[in-house]
Structure formats: structure tokens, C-alpha cells
């Protein structure tokens, strides 16, 4: 199958679709991105690569990083992670506060902001040097020491992150944040600021399509059972209050970020990353979702 030809076809089709999306600007630094960039990269579990467009350009991965931090916590934590957060779809925006009050500071899942902040609290306890250890973990997934945080983006979000501070304070009041709030939020904003290209994202997520084993090193990051569960969480919670739509249209477990990136995996087959910076009203890439919908429809490569 020549996926590059399919990518070109879908891209051409989407040129005729008006992009109703907007670049994220609630994090001021993200507003500077050229919104017309577009990239896609697919890596198969047996090592084949298919690329199109700006697939080598790095961008801010934002919430996609929540999968890396969750996997690192899930693979190392000694206590029960599910006492600190639930594993149900929230059906609310990624930064919503409403359920957290009703649920007494227990986030609905690890991929909404509240859940990802609790994961950071766990990592502060579990890791000797959380930022360095996190980066080393991501670099090991694709053998690339150039992956890094962007301190300007992290600082920009910190200065405007009032909602995230509201979430962490609310959870602290319920006793679900153990560490100093500033330490936890520093890790959260830093992790969100990681920059990667479509190629790097697709390669680094490949272990989730490969029963938890990193293809290039043979390292088992997660057990097959935990890999299944992580994919299930991406399927049900990876797109917030658009998770049902994404499942309906694309039919793959995946995760989005407000930088305009989306990664999706087909267990046993491939991992695909797409990037288009303009976001829909739910904070997910507008054309990224359209692209993936066309891709799984044309190739019949969804899990359903
Ligand atoms: O906390 C935030 O609002 C951002 N750092 C991440 C949000 C995000 O990427 C939501 N995903 N579509």
C-alpha cells in the first residue's frame, strides 16, 4: 500500500474544505505558529515510514505529552494510581472545573488537565529528577537526544495558566495533591512544552501499537495488559468531549494537543501523527481529524 499517495490525495481534497479552526492563543507563545503548515507521518510496527508535508517540523505537542507522563507513572508507580483518578470519559472540556467539585477532587481520567496534573504530582514523588527523567524516557522511545522542552512556551503558559492553577488548588483542597503546587505545575507546564515533529511522534508512540515493546530497542515499557488499557483510555478520553466523535469518525485510539497535533495508533499495525495548527471548538486539530477520518475510511485501517 502506497500511503504517501493516499496522503497526497486526502491533502488535495482537504484544500477545498474551508478551515474553520483557530490557532490556540490562550497560551500566547502558541499564537505565533504559521497556521498553514501541515504534516503527517506513519510508521508501521515492522519499520516502514510514510511521510507527507511538514512532517519533520517540530511543534508544541502540549496534551499529547500527557500520554508519556501517564505511561511513565503507570509503569513505575507502587501505589494504586486509580485511587487518585478515575478512568471514565469526562464529556467536558479539557480544562473544566465543574466535575472536580462533585467528584471531591478526583479527576475523571488521566488525560483531562486535572488528571494530568495528578500524574505530575505522582511523578514528583516517584522520580529523582522528574524533568530530566521524563525527557530521558521520551528520548529512549525513539533514540533521539535532540527532543527537548521549550522554556519560553512553558513560561508563557505559566503566566496565563489561571485555570490550571484553579484545578490544582481545588484538588489540593481535597487532599489529592501531595506536593507543593508550584513544583507540580512547573513539571506540568514543562512537560506540555515538549516539541516534536510528526515523524518523532509517530515513532515514539509505536510501542503502543507493539504490545508495549519499543521496536528499535526491544525494551518492554508497559506490559501487554497495561498497553491495552492505555490504548483504551486514549480511545475513550483522548479527545475530551469529542472522544465519541473521534471514535465515530476515525476509529483509532489517539491523543490530541492544542499545538494542533494528533497521534493515533492501530494496535499490531502502525502509529500515525498528523499536524495542522488550527483547532476546532473542542481544542482539537480541525483538519487533523478530517484527515484521519479520510485516511481510515479510504484504507479501511480503523480498529472497528
Ligand atoms: O494545560 C493546557 O491547557 C495545555 N498545556 C494543554 C491543553 C491541550 O493540549 C488540550 N488538548 N487538545
Structure description:
The protein has 304 residues and is α+β, with helices and mostly antiparallel strands. It has twelve helices and seven strands. It is globular, with a radius of gyration of 18 Å. The structure holds 6-diazenyl-5-OXO-L-norleucine (DON). 6-diazenyl-5-OXO-L-norleucine binds next to loops.
Bound molecule types: 6-diazenyl-5-OXO-L-norleucine
**Rg for CA atoms:** 18 Å
Supply the CATH class.
Answer: Alpha Beta
Helix content: 40-55%
* Secondary-structure element series: HEEEHHHHHHHEHHHEEEH
β-strand amount: 5-15%
CATH topological fold name? Beta-lactamase
Derived from helix and strand composition plus strand pairing, the structural class reads: alpha+beta
Distance between the termini: 20 Å
Q: Based on Cα principal axes, name the global outline.
A: globular
Mean pLDDT: 96
- Stretches with pLDDT under 50, minimum 5 residues: none
Number of helices: 12
Number of strands: 7
In CATH, the architecture is: 3-Layer(aba) Sandwich
> How can the largest sheet be summarized?
5 strands, antiparallel
Number of domains: 1
Strand order of the largest sheet: 2-1-7-6-5
Per CATH, the superfamily is: DD-peptidase/beta-lactamase superfamily
